[in-house]
Each structure stands twice: as C-alpha cells, then as structure tokens.
C-alpha cells in the first residue's frame, strides 16, 4: 500500500509538472500572437491585453506593465472564488506571460510581419492567441483578465469559455475607436475576438470530449479488466440476448475520454479481434472522472 501510494504521488507530481510546462508553452504562443502579429498592425484584442493594447497605442506605455497591474486586482477575486489551485497557476501564468512579453518584444524588435496584410495578421495572431489560451485552460491555468471572469461564470453555468469571453470583450474592442478613430481597425478587432474565441473552444473541447463504447465479446472479462487497468476507466457489464440467435451475451458499456480511444481499441484488438464494437461521441459526460454537474 505504501508503494502504491508513492506511485500515486509520483504520478500526481508528474501531472502537475506537465500542467506548468504546458501553460508556459501556451503563454509563449499567446505572446507571439499578440506582440508579433497584432500589436505591430494596430489590432486590438479583448480582455486585459486589449486594455493594455489601447493604453500602449495611446501613450506608448509597455503592455506588460498594464497587463500585470490589472491582473493583480483580478487575481484577488480569483483566489476568493476559484480557490488556490486555479489561482496559483493563474499567478504563475501572469508572471510568466509578463516575462515572455518582454523577451519576445526584445527578440522581435524592428520586425514587422504582414505590414500590408492586416487581415492575415489578424487571422494568424488570433489563432495563436486562442490556441495559447486554450492550452492554458486545458491544464487548469489561465492568462488572467477576462479568462478569470469566464472561468468563474463557467464554474456555475454551463456556458462555453469562448462565448463568455466574447461578450466580455466586445466593449473593450469597441472602445479602441477612441484612440484610432478608425472603424476598420475596430472591425479587425472584432474578427480577432471571434477567431480567438472559436479556436479556444476547439482546443478546450477537444481535450474534454468524451466517447461511449459498446463492446460485445466472449472474452468480455479480459477486455473489461484490461480497460480498468490500462486507461483506468470504469466498465459496466450488461446482460443481453441476441434477437435472431437467442443466445445470451455480455455487453460492456464504457465511458472514456476521446484521447483514450486509441488505447481502448488497441486493447480490444489484442484480446479479441472479432469483437463487436461501437463508438459514439457524447455531448456531455458528468460524474467521477468526467465533468462536474453544473446547476443554478
């Protein structure tokens, strides 16, 4: 039992390290999208980065300092509502992104990509930002700002993170007109926000998507045991009867994450290549090992 406990602790530690490394990679991607593609082309994004961008366009004040100051206030709210586990990673994310923003700007100083193609800069920058935020959220992190607001609302309501951020950020992007007095750049900001929200939802939902397996095999015990031991998913045995043959059969019902699909198929193929298997996508899976049920 002691050895098993150590294995669990080691696995938990590795998962935490994986989370922090993945959050850092996501933030680097976000920083590249923001400072390499959006800022040089006067394109405003949403959230606290959007506010920081507007301040930068109006005064030239470095975006990383505005970003850090506003997030410091929001982090206090995050600690009270979302708890220390989420907030600690958010604090880590805010400090990390602030650092990488300075580094990326130094390395790309004087670089002006897609100067005459603002739409392409908008698409590439928004895609990088959305993917970066999505990676951070998928590993229990956040880039701060309206991400925190979106996470708080998502905690109590079954509303997608991207949709919450979309509505929260419209006002910020619209206010960029005060600086630019150019509706074309405001429209580019809207496009950036939409693409960023869309990519964010795709990344987060792909990481959380669940699938359902129905397996009929004479070697159901071996298959069920391998699924419980391998991907560590629960298996339910259902008694069934073949309509034509009238034979009694055992049917396995399995709920798993989409990322476990290849492993489960491999295990079934190794034990019984002739097993009857169906796989279907599930809109939502709630309970132990899956998403938490959200009610009003």
Précis, in short:
The chain is of the alpha+beta class and 296 residues long. It is 65% helix and 10% strand. It has 2 domains: 2-207, no CATH class; 209-282, ACT domain (Alpha-Beta Plaits, 2-Layer Sandwich).
Walkthrough of the structure:
This protein has 296 residues and is α+β, with helices and mostly antiparallel strands. It folds into 2 domains: 2-207, no CATH class; 209-282, ACT domain (Alpha-Beta Plaits). Helix content is 65%, strand content 10%. The protein is built from 11 helices and 4 strands; from the N terminus they run αααααααααβαββαβ. It has helices at residues 2-38, 47-59, 63-82, 84-107, 118-138, 146-156, 161-174, 177-180, 183-208, 220-229, 261-271; strands spanning 210-216, 235-241, 248-257, 276-282. Strands 2-3-1-4 form a 4-stranded antiparallel beta sheet, covered by helices on one side. Strand 2 (235-241) and strand 3 form a beta hairpin.
Kindly provide the radius of gyration, computed on alpha-carbon positions and rounded to a whole number of angstroms. 24 Å
Multimerization state: single chain
Anisotropy-based shape: elongated
Q: Strand count, sense and closure of the main sheet?
A: 4 strands, antiparallel
**How much β-strand is present in the residues?**
5-15%
Q: Strands across the major sheet, in which order?
A: 2-3-1-4
Per DSSP E runs of 2 or more residues, the count of β-strands stands at: 4
Distance between the termini: 40 Å
Task: Report the total helices.
Answer: 11
- Count the domains: 2
